[in-house]
């Protein structure tokens, strides 16, 4: 492939030593502070001619915008000139991860399933819910929540077992009384 035939190749009459036909003006002479025509800084606390005094707000830079009619300058809290730039400080994001408890609280899950199926269904379901909450709190490292849910699951399981045993005893007594009546 011939490089002179490529679409991006320069034309045949192009000379790299020649400059373009456009004349570039010379750069302006260096001035240390062009906004201050006289050399040096203005006196302390005095604004330069034609400039507004610097705003002393929260360590921010002075506003380059002129004050709006009817507004005090520098503006009071909650008042900023139209289009003024606000400084926003962004805090770094901190991710806190919870680790499982070293000594997890008992969740009574098996006990809850037993009381739900064999003793008292409504209290067994409630105990099962608190057992699962205890397990979740143990995995998330929330000790107080785990203690509270574990205690509630245990109490509900004991109540369900007590109600279940009482119902079984009442059923046996009722069956015995009914059996004695017909004999």
Structural class: mainly alpha
Average pLDDT over all residues: 78
The count of β-strands is: 0
| N-end to C-end Cα span | 118 Å
Uncertain residue ranges: none
Polypeptide structure, described:
The protein is an all-alpha fold and 183 residues long. Helix content is 38%, strand content 0%. It is built from three helices and no strands. Helix 1 (109-119) runs antiparallel to helix 2. The longest helix is centred in the C-terminal third of the chain and has 39 residues, at 143-181. The radius of gyration is 43 Å and the shape is elongated. The N and C termini lie far apart (118 Å). 16% of the residues are buried. The model has no long low-confidence stretch (mean pLDDT 78).
Topology:
Blueprint: H1 109-119, H2 121-140, H3 143-181
Helix pairs in contact: 1-2, 1-3, 2-3
Descriptive keywords:
183 residues; mainly alpha; 38% helix; elongated
Summarize the structure.
The chain contains 3 helices and no strands. The protein is an all-alpha fold and 183 residues long.
């Amino acid at each position: 492939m011939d490089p002179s035939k490529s679409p991006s190749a320069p034309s045949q009459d192009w000379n790299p030593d020649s400059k373009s036909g456009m004349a570039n003006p010379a750069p302006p002479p260096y001035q240390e502070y062009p906004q201050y025509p006289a050399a040096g800084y203005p006196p302390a606390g005095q604004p330069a001619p034609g400039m507004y005094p610097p705003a002393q707000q929260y360590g921010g830079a002075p506003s380059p915008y002129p004050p709006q009619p009817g507004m005090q300058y520098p503006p009071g809290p909650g008042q900023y000139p139209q289009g003024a730039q606000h400084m926003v400080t962004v805090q770094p994001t901190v991710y806190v991860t919870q680790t499982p408890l070293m000594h997890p609280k008992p969740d009574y899950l098996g006990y809850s399933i037993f009381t739900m199926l064999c003793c008292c269904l409504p209290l067994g379901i409630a105990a099962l819910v608190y057992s699962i909450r205890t397990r979740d709190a143990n995995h998330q490292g929330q000790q107080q929540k785990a203690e509270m849910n574990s205690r509630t699951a245990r109490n509900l399981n004991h109540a369900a077992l007590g109600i279940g045993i009482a119902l079984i005893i009442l059923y046996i007594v009722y069956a015995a009384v009914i059996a004695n009546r017909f004999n």
